[in-house]
Amino acid sequence: DDAHWSIAIEGMTCASCVARVEKALRQVEGVADASVNLATETASIAAAPAVTLASLTAAVTRAGYDVPVRT
Ligand code: 9UX
User: Fold this and answer.
1) How far away, in angstroms, is 10 Cα from ligand 1 center?
2) Closest approach atom of ligand 1 to CA 14
3) CA atoms of 56 and 14, how far apart (whole Å)
4) What number is the ipTM of this complex?
């Protein structure tokens, strides 16, 4: 089954930002679906088990947005 991620994303201010982040995440190998909630600044992602948080974070960063470090 797919793994489900919820990751915080910073730097989005309009609906086009949301679309950009969703597109970037969906282009990651193994990602089945990604949806972003602007109000909560959260991305919900379904992905194959092999997909790593690092690869998801990298896609968001390349698109120009930030993923806060989780401690
Ligand atoms: Mo909207 Mo987001 O004009 O980077 S696309 S602010």
Assistant:
1) 12
2) 1
3) 21
4) 0.89
